[in-house]
Amino acid sequence: MLGWIGFLFVVLAALNYDGKTPYPGWRAIPPSLGAALMIAAGGRCNGVFSVTCLLSLKPMQALGRISYGWYLWHWPILTLSGVIYIQAGETTRLALALCALFLAAFSFRFVELPIRRNGALLRYPKRIVLGAICASLLMANFALSWNRRAEKARFDPLWTQIEEARSDLSELYAYGCDTWFFSAELTVCAFGDQRATHTAVLMGDSVGAQWFPALKPRFTQLGWRLLVLTKSSCPMVEKSFFYPRIGKEYTVCTEWRQRALDFLREQKPEQVFLGSAVSSGGFSDAEWTEGSRKVLAALSPYVGAITLIRGTPILPFNAPDCLADETFFTNFLAGENRCSAKPDDTRNEAVFAALRVAARDFPNTRLLDMNDAICPDGLCGAQRENLVVFRDNQHLTARFTAHLAEIFSNRLDALWADAKNQEIAE
Asked: DSSP letters along 337-405, please?
């Protein structure tokens, strides 16, 4: 009975724990306790079909014998394969895991067993210890050589550019405009002439806020006041959601968004720009539409014009990591254009369509799509025109966003010119 209860604990944990499960915490208790109960059940099969009998079957024992080797092999296989298969999907990762299983069986048969059963080695323990020390010194020398190479690479101009790209955020974050999940307090950052008669507002999560370097020069030149309201991982969708990073519902986002909407109703700005990551919240298409409609309904009567900025494409790799690999490693296995890919736009298109449906009810709302300027011809590159485009897999670097400022401004003018002509025609 103890064995089956323990087995049940382990199976339930395996089937029910996922990426949204905070771990370890108390959730580590069921699988750990389950393993302890199975061990406590004993190692002898007494004729009654028990967990011990199940685990005593030859296939199970064969797998058990190489399981530790499998554990040791799987991590370097999966990690190093990322240098070659930067866009590895589930099928590729499964094949790599099976490759690690084969290596575990091979090393068990031809490395572990021969050493364990070698009588000569057992007769000379001093030689074994000396050999182990020599092997350790060789590995230490290899590690130090690799470290020296890495230190030297740090001073390469391209490497410096790549490293800077990882933290190439706009000046917003230096001013403390974003309190992330720590607080629901609304921190408004103001730029431009504070006595200006016209006000524009940029509001959104980190993907929305990344457009600040494109908006600031436009409204500074126009003599407007530009306000920024940003909360990382907080989409402009009136819908509560579970945030895996904090392991609970992101209530801080809901409270902050409500305060931001109340603030904008008081300010009555001429223009508002809203932006959100398409991966935020895990919302369905219907939730994106309805949640966005609620936000627009709260703003539309008090705002002159609302522009919804489409979420940026999501790369199948981390851009600086990929460029770093190309710089640091010999790239003979990877081929050319390794740090360029066509993103899977299925989710992005669905969210954009949902926003389009939500905006139909509000004549002062338009959608701005910059994705073809980010990824020309549908191909997203980690680097373009000597600039690193992405600082991870979905956020643009501040330098590249500033590079797009003129295109952004021209498209915005064209967007609202078309809206005005449409209004006149109607």
From this structure: STTEE----HHHHHHHHHHHHHHTT-TTEEEE--HHHHSGGG-EESEETTEE-BSSSSPBPHHHHHHTH
